[in-house]
Amino acid sequence: MEQFIQQLVNGISLGSIYALIALGYTMVYGIVKLINFAHGDVFMVGAFIGFYSITILDLGFFTALLISMAACAIFGVLIERIAYKPLRNATRIAALITAIGVSLFIEYGTIYIRGAQPEAYPNGIVPLKSLEIFGVKISGQSILILAVSVFLMIVLQFIVHKTKIGKAMRAVSHDMDAAKLMGINVNNTISATFAIGSALAGAAGVVFGMYYTKIEPLMGIIPGLKAFVAAVLGGIGIIPGAMAGGLLLGVIESLVSAMGGSLWRDAVAFIVLILILIFRPAGLFGKNVREKV
Amino acid sequence: MRKKKTAGIVMSLLLAAGVMAGCNSSSSSSSGGDEEKGGTIKIGANLELSGGVASYGQSIKEGIDLALEEINKDGIDGKKLQLVSYDNKSEAPEAISGATKLISQDKVVAIIGAATSGNTKAQIEIAQSNNVPLLTPTGTAEDVTVKDGKLSDFVFRTCFIDPFQGTVAANFASNDLKAKTAAIFIDSASDYSKGLAASFKELFEKKGGKIVKEEAYVAKDTDFHAQLTNIKGKTPDFIFVPGYYEEVGLIVKQARELGIDVPMMGADGWDSPKLVELAGKDALDNTFITNHYSSGDSDPKVQDFVKAFKAKYKDKSPDAFNALGYDSAYFLADAIKRAGSGDAKKIQKALAETDGLELVTGKMKLDKNHNPIKSAVILEYKGGEQTFKTKVSPE
Lengths: 293, 395
Fold this sequence. Notes:
The complex is a heterodimer. Chain A is mostly helical. Chain A has eleven helices and four strands, in the order ααααβββααααβααα. A two-stranded antiparallel ribbon of chain A has the order 1-4. Chain A has a two-stranded antiparallel sheet with strand order 2-3. Chain A is globular, with a radius of gyration of 19 Å. Residues 21-37 of chain B have low confidence and may be disordered. In chain B, the strands form four sheets. A seven-stranded mixed β-sheet of chain B has the order 9-8-10-11-12-15-16, sandwiched between helices. The radius of gyration of chain B is 23 Å and the shape is globular. Helices cover 46% and strands 20% of the residues of chain B. In chain B, α4 (92-105) runs parallel beside α5, α6 packs parallel to α7 and α9 runs parallel beside α10. The interface between A and B is medium-sized, with 31 and 26 residues.
């Protein structure tokens, strides 16, 4: 029993990181209908910016987190302006393939600049004690990660539903041309979406580095894909859905490992993706909306 | 157009001639055809001096250079050893062309190299068909000397093979740490890891120990909490983790976070400064590794080597690759001396008969598969530093 609860705790810590990446994923998809495969690599860039802020500039964890979020926001906007904007009226598949290209470009560009060797986040950046309840160890860091994820999710919900830019985002997502006719600056709205989404990825990168220590240029691939699964699981485009999907995926993976299937872990994640696409394509939180023809 | 083409042909011919001339001058400078009468015996080195694993090759070369300097003070029966070295750029095709050049052009009596098992295997065919001994300092894969169950009789190595480290770890766990139960956590994508785990398990069980849990991961994983929680549930006395430092660093860290404080052990795959960064100094306490050599070994032979090495290379402390390169040169020199000539076949026979040769990395004796039976060292991490714990002789 104790072991089972420990595995749940492990799963929630892992899932919080998936959730944090999935938030940005789902948001960009929700507004622009683009699966931004470069999202996982923005996450990687965020991890490195955080790392260099902590080791070279000697900053604290929260300052590094903010710097990384700001830098990634700018980076995300640049990617959108350079790579995706010219293709806005092209087919969906063209944009998707471009996203894959951008992803590879960022990965190998990073390797070109700094080499492929991994880097280790310094230990004990956030001096948090771990809790022990009935023999179950909960590290202070995993509580922090969960708190950061939930907090950012609430902020995001607030931005999308209560602010003017959020209203514009929802309008653009509903009908881009109609929004334009109503005087909404579509370009700025999409840039804002990418800025917020990429800032979330940057935050996830720093948190990941703090929790798992090791960062390297190809670290974004698997968490990026998992976050994609999490977003689809919760219903792509739905913010609380991404959160729930991430946590659920983390717990599923931990339980699969707990039952001795540690080598099947990634396979199970993608089986979940296939199953959800077959039986509930709109995701757990999604409503089945027919696309207008 | 035509003119251009002719000009191109002329140019390339000139270039080729230039290259040939270069080769000729390098090979004619000393040999004069017959090595035995010339006062020098030529040996070849085919190492990774650039490319992906350049640091291995460079370290080995440093070791060989130091050893040859010492050997050539007196020479072997009045003859000096001359090293002809080629860079294989950490690539198998380059290793093949290097071996061909060494044998056909430079007429060496034996080749030292390459550093990795893969680049060594690439040269086996050439060494075998030309009857020239090939001696790898650090190729640890079991199938370097044996192919399809048949011994490649001209291939040798100075290092012990992978599974040996597993048996050393099993001995250490049950004899020194008095572990009764153990868990094994392997990298299921690596033959190295699987080989070590299998030999560990075999001997540990033979000694009356019990493996209570076997878990696996795949290289590049970052989250090991789930498997470690499973291991913790079985409360083993000891955990064997034969992996590479990138993952092992995280495994050790996460294990300690989960409150697993039993001794953990691995092999030479742990040996990197990155491991300390990843795991953190405190987490590494109470962990052990097996390795080929330790500069902290109190054996006078090791200490003399460390002193000589530091004198030649600006106070640099020699690592296992330096030591194995150094030993490879001595291993070969000893065989040449006993063969009494620069004849490759006689040297091959002498190499195979090596018995009890004292080297820096331990006493050498070859088994029937040309694998050295020699001692390994066990190192313990204390405050993030490797400290010499003990030397284990093979049983």
